[in-house]
Amino acid sequence: MVEIVDIQAVRRISLAEHISPPFQLAPPRVLNLSLIPADILDAMRPGWFTGRFPAEPVAVTKLLDVYVTMEGLVFTQDKKLVRQSIAQHGPEECAQALGRINEVEQAGQVPVMWPASLLLRKRGEQNYGHWMVELLPRLWLAEAYLPLGSLVVPKFSGNLARVLRDSVALTSSLCPSFLEMGYHDVIFFKELVMVDGLTNHGVYMSPLAFSRTDNMVASVAGAHVRRLYVSRKGLHRGIRNEEDLTAFLATLGFLCVDPAEMTLLEQIKLFRNAECVVGVLGAGMTNIMFCSKGTKIINLAPTGMPDTFFYFIAGLRGLTYYEIRGVSCAQSDDRDAPFEIEKEHLAYVLRLAMPDSGL
């Protein structure tokens, strides 16, 4: 049994408290809302239908003598799990994390970090969107309060590793070292800085998550492309009839793109001047954060996927957001199965979003 403890009861030093400003978001415009299963819709209600979000504190705290393992779970020296480090981790994962700490400790293989380090890890950390919106901004809020020995980051590979370093270099005055951690790694930190309250995935996203986004965009010249289609071809949760949709969108001047292997600067450049972005729900759509205020966003998602992430990004960045829900092609409840979007439905929403599109 894992004992959970609030951060207020842990050996700690409070470094700062930012106040995230209040904001208001209208419910999203969703086509085929009635097709979303009741339990999935209920999971999205706090994000979609709260309306007015009050001011909230975002705390920067230095914890003393703690373990970190498995996507950012933090345990005290006496093996109590810090509540504020839990982010969509289930009870089984929490128990596995405690077991992993005990296993590594018994083998005498727990490395110890002495300089103060900033934790930039969470559940789902291997996702580009989670890094750009939920992890990187923690650095912006914490860097002013102490010299950091290192940034504790996910062990990325390929292009994501380059994005991680480029995003830090582009938005921070620090030249930190990076302490990469794999899923099963265990490290004991004498001083670990945590930022809590910036996001609650699916339920809340602070405007402070975009406090330096405009600076990022201003540093890159935009492309001349005005209409983009963001594909997930070859990945899970793709659109079965994507070829028909892309052929239709091409007649309207849309460029089909896959940002997965683009550099961060290339992604900013591509999305900065877009007037309309249509895309399949997934990491690539995170780049709508670089779009100008008023850009039209049409997010394509399966009916069984409880996601509010891009709705929050669009709302906080002043974008005009639409969503089309499509029926899964699988007989099971697999949320990542291919799904289908009717061309007529896409044309209808495009007419709403862009009355002068010629449709």
UniProtKB/TrEMBL annotation:
Alphabetized UniProt keyword annotations: Glycoprotein, Glycosyltransferase, Transferase
Pfam family, one: Glyco_transf_61
Claim: Glycosyltransferase is one of the keywords in the record: yes
Example of a GO MF term: glycosyltransferase activity
Chain ranges passing through the membrane: none
Residue span(s) of domain Glycosyltransferase 61 catalytic: 128-298
Protein name (record): Glycosyltransferase family 61 protein
Organism of this sequence: Gluconacetobacter dulcium
